[in-house]
Amino acid sequence: MFSQLLTPALALLFTTNSLAFPSPNLNLPRSALTAAQILQISPGSSSCTGATHPTECRTASQAVNAINYAFQTYGITTPGEQAAVISTMAFESGDFKYQKHYFPSPNPGQGTRNMQSAEFNLKYAQSITALSSQISTAEAAGGDGVLDLLIANDDYDFGSAAWFITTQCSQSVRQQLQEGNAQGWGGYLECIGTTVTSDRTAYYTRATTTLGVNGGN
Fold first, then answer.
1. How far apart, in Å, are the Cα atoms of 56 and each of 8, 11, 113, 124?
2. What is the DSSP string of 28-97?
3. How high is the mean pLDDT in each 10-residue block of the chain (217 residues)?
4. Residue 167: what pLDDT?
5. pTM of the full predicted structure?
6. What pLDDT, on the 0 to 100 scale, is given for residue 135?
7. DSSP secondary-structure letter at 213?
8. Within 10 A of 202 (CB to CB), how many other CB atoms are there?
9. Distance between CA atoms of 81 and 172, rounded to whole angstroms?
10. Which of 181, 212, 204, 9 is nearest to 91 (CA)?
């Protein structure tokens, strides 16, 4: 559903009261994540030099505010869930180099930082009140119409994975991720329509270590 390598199954700031998001949860159990932490999880996000699609690329320093905003907006406050979401975005977007699905071949409508399918991008866009007047036209245009609405705004672009886990994954999967166990990671990957692989898990392991999930897993 998300992977650049698999057949898919499946934002500049706006104020939260303009979005159909849950109320922000500002009572995070830790201070906001830093660019240095994002870089530890996604080592390739230090620079956009040489990026194939440079306008799509974001460095860790450019991405961190939107990631923190997404976690506050959707109430993702536990390190275990944050680790899963960040590692998925970093893996799927090639260290934040891509907003659209290119590999192994382009798939119109699939993208955002977690490489959601067009189906879920439409559902996600429909949840954002600020986009409501534009969705019908974008959907009628086909192709990347809806996706382009989302990736034009870093908060929306980096918010898709947080939206997905809170609206599409079960509470039991989220609870297991919060506990930092292997069942939680496997269950989360099943929820997003993919499977455990060594390269994907490498990002997750760096994330759990960086964020101190169960002592760094």
1. 20, 12, 10, 20
2. -SSPPP-HHHHHHH-GGGG--TT-SSTTT---HHHHHHHHHHHHHHHT--SHHHHHHHHHHHHHHTTTTT
3. 41 36 40 93 98 98 98 96 98 98 94 98 98 97 97 98 98 96 95 97 97 75
4. 98
5. 0.85
6. 97
7. G
8. 12
9. 12
10. 204
Question: Which DSSP category does 214 fall into?
Answer: G
Task: Please answer whether residues 11 and 99 qualify as being in contact, where contact means their C-beta atoms are separated by less than 8 angstroms.
Answer: no
Q: Are 75 and 87 in contact (CB under 8 A)?
A: no
Amino acid at 214: N
Q: How many CB atoms neighbour CB 154 within 10 A?
A: 21
Positive or negative: CA dihedral 175, 185, 122, 48: positive
pLDDT at 214: 79
How is residue 127 written in tokens?
């949840």
Place of tokens 């977690």: 114
